[in-house]
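Example 3.2
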Amino acid sequence: MNSNKYRRQLHSFMEKTPYYSYSTGHLPKGCRLCVKGQKTVVFITGICSKSCIYCPISEQKSKKDVIYINEWPTRKLKDLETEIRMCSSKGAGITGGDPLARLNRTVRYIRHMKKVFGRGFHIHLYTPLSLVSDKALQKLHQAGLDEIRFHPDLWRPDEWHRMNLAEKYRWSVGVEIPAVPGMEKETQALIDFTREKIDFLNINELEISDTNASRLVEMGFKAKDSLSYGVKGSESLAKRLLRYAERQGISTHYCTSRLKDRVQLASRLKRRAKNARASYDFVTDEGMLVRAQVKYTSLKRTVQLLRKYGIRDFYIDKKHKRILFAADIAQRKRDAMKKCGLCVSIVEEYPTWDCLNVQTIPL
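Structure, written as tokens:
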């Protein structure tokens, strides 16, 4: 562990960051890169021995041995490299599930990223404590992991001692937990336990998702308002915990649901859009791609018609049976195209692997 933990800023004050969050002390490097959209998310497996009530993982991932690189479902290391380059990432965050449930795979991915992108490519990892062992931590450290973030179970203090195993390695060690209303004393006990053991504490706003909604509602939790996924009472608790941790001399960051959507994800999308955009694309201020599309049944005939109207710059998207080209050209020539029976529309899409549709406007 870094020696920074012994040089606490005991008199720092809670400050609002430019990222809709609050902190005392310094943000860990993983967070500093993340808020700038400079981290690729490596979902290494959905397998996990825990069944946390607040787990937000989607049904397509939860308890399934799948791999996603950001939005891209793939097991190919070449695709991992491609996505990292498409996002101009300076690091990666490995998550799950529990990455330790597929330890050898996790180690292989860490080694590969370090080999391809260099030692300066920052990698952090999230893991619960169930599978934490000295052998597992040694493998992660030797592979080149820079930062480990433990997810301790507030209901299982008997597992907390496993975090002590990380102290002997030269990496950054942190704890990341949600602020769960009604669990203030238990969380304070965890903070007391981790004092002088960790470099930082991250407190996340508890969020309602499609997969955890029924469980959280059964426990009496509800959204703080109609526009947010944040749970009522989570933010006020997080701020109290942040002040409590500050008195213990722990650098702490309260990460809001707003930060994840409006800053972290938005910044990553904008970075990817710069590399994903084709010559015919228009990029919005939010990083969305605007282009024209024409659906086809006969590819040959559709291409011939596009060329008839002088359209040479286009892309054949066989996955979605469509041809993409510039939106301004489609608007200028829509009447002629309609007469030929072409079904043309303007689409706004995410710059991600899956081209998630935002809106479609038929011409």
